[in-house]
Amino acid sequence: MESNRSSLFVYYRWLLLLLASGLCLFPLWATFMGGFKSTGDLRTNAFGLPKEWLTDNYVSIATSGRFWQMLGNSAFIAFVTVVLTLLVSSMAAFVLAHLHFGGKKWLSNYLALGLTFPFATAVLPVFIRVRDLGLLDSYWGVILPQVAFNLGFAVVLLQGFFSELPKELFEAAFVDGCSYTRMFWQITLPLSRPILATVGVLALIGSWNEYLLPLVMINSETLYPWPLGVMQYQGQYGTDWGKVLAFVSLTLMPALIFYLMAQKQIIAGLTAGGVKG
Amino acid sequence: MAIATNPSSSDPKHPPVPTITAQVQQDLPSLAEARQLEELLGARPSLWRRLQDFSGSSQMRACILFLPPALLLFTLFVTWPVVEAAYYSFFNWNGYGVPSKWIGLDNFLRVLSDPIFYHSLFNNLLIVLVSAFIQVPMALALALLISDKSRSSVIFRAIFFLPYILGEIVAGLIWRYIYDGNYGVVEVVYRWFGQQAPEVLATEGWATAALLLVIVWKYFGFHMALFVAGRQGVGDDVLEAAKIDGATRWQTTLNIVLPLMRPVIVLSLFFSILGSLQAFAIIVALTDGGPSNSTHSAVSYLYNFGIKRMRVGFGSAIGVTLFIICVLVMVFYKRLFMRSKEGR
What we know:
The complex is a heterodimer of chains A (277) and B (344). Chain A has helices at 2-34, 39-44, 56-62, 65-98, 104-112, 123-132, 139-162, 167-175, 180-191, 193-209, 212-217, 226-237, 241-261, 263-276.
């Protein structure tokens, strides 16, 4: 009887999981297929394969300069954001983890403040600050606030990891006359690849998908990252869903490819980031 | 407890401090000796002494090189703007020149008397409730089914997590298509039954429900991944023991696994609250706050009525109100549920 119940459990488990996967993936399937469908086909045949595979939508978008430009903009902003976030936060975390001085605790708590409220609450003053610095309508107007807002979680995660590195290494290096700056580059950073990857992935995905900040800071279409570009495209073509779905499908490709390549690390990184942050 | 573990002052192994200090003063030791002694005695060196040691050391160089970028960026773009928002919120200001039209608490009164603002906050609450009562239990159940290391479980996890990494804009637009009453999937389904599909996103109530469904779709994978990590943290030996004692799968889950996973559940709800307070792009892409401003969240309200119209004073007042709500919610939640965090 036990094995009977057990096989029933297995059966229901598979049923439930397949159903949930279907609900999870169906919207994406409908989107990819929608890009190939004619308007009439879309109206009557939302679920199946296209009756006729129209590639015009995909081809015309993939060959347009506008599409590649906005992916390029997003990639540049995300790349610089990740590099700066890692550099600035790991330097600060190193000092906070390894050096002892008065007010250290206060400083870590100060940086951890960034975890307690959403960026949007202060976005107007940030806009004015960026404008006064003359960085409005430039990549830097997006990058710098993004890096600043990443510092909260990044420093918390890195500091936690750094302070658990074996003390003996640093003592030995100190005795050998190694400066703290060199310890940072030659001991701390090489030993911290896993946590740097975690912080990097968090910063990368956050920046790649960010909408509010570029919306506020960027005016020129040539500087639009993809979330702004795709909203503009949708505004232009409205319910010409074939076009819009093709555009959406193509913009989510980079994230999808990245996810398929490093799916395990991404899930581990994003959840570990959550748990420890 | 801290007092009990401390060596008491009458401990014979630690001779009374004053006599040794007196000895040291008598012998007029060298500076190095004095420092050594001080260290031995565990005395705190004077501030001047510490500064002397500190300056010119590679410690200080590291501090001077490493700390300022973070502190500068953080202050410039995170903390100081919050202070500025508090200041601007007392003005009627369009962002040009300097704020000069002081209007006291008028902005706050306008925010707090705006029914749309309350409706937006109510939507935030709805998101949290749906997350707590639908999304989190669902994610937990699925997580318990696929927390083992088998190939199929890994694949299912990857599938469920996928919507989470997509941009909110993409999620919003995809579902905008699905809900579309003329072209979308919903329309096709209704036609199977010979019915006219409702304009989901143009009908109050329906639009909110639609938004909530999209949020569940996009974020349950993240909660599931948290739970999988939490479930894998529960030691197998405990479960082995339960099995030997004849506990059924259901009993084990209910009485052993779930209580042990409490910290993760608390954390997951914490993220729901945090996420709800940040919900913005998904709303813009799906409904843009409509119909008749019924699907705004706090942040999309802030964007629509403050930022979009460059009403800096009013927008700042919304921001400050939101900031206070966030801090209160976080502090309360942490006090209430996250006390046991150290014990993890």
